[in-house]
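Sanity check

After download, print the first record. It should look like this:
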Amino acid sequence: MSRNSEPDYDNLKTNTITRSINTIFGCIIGALCLALMGAHFLSMMIALTIAILVTTSFPKYPSSWKVAPVAIVMIPAIQQHADLRTSLKIALDRTEDVLLGCVVAFLLGLTFS
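Expected structure tokens:
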């Protein structure tokens, strides 16, 4: 078996932390925009703009190009034309799913390293 197929622990840890930070940040920005502007395409574009401006303003921000969590938490609410309570529940559920996926990926990486 090739050593190239085995995960690098440091890279695995860094990616897990980065994805978790970006997911939480994306959820916060997305939830704030949902609460302030509602579940609309324009509010998602504003949320993405805010996320890009904030993440690119900090040179040490981990993987500043990963702003997808904003869209991940907002798109289902926009597609369903959901009210505020349902929109926030969807956003939190999606965030929980991504964070759980991060933990599972980390544990699998540890198992196979």
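If your output differs, re-run the checksum step. Summary of this record's structure: The CA atoms of residues 23 and 69 lie 5 Å apart.
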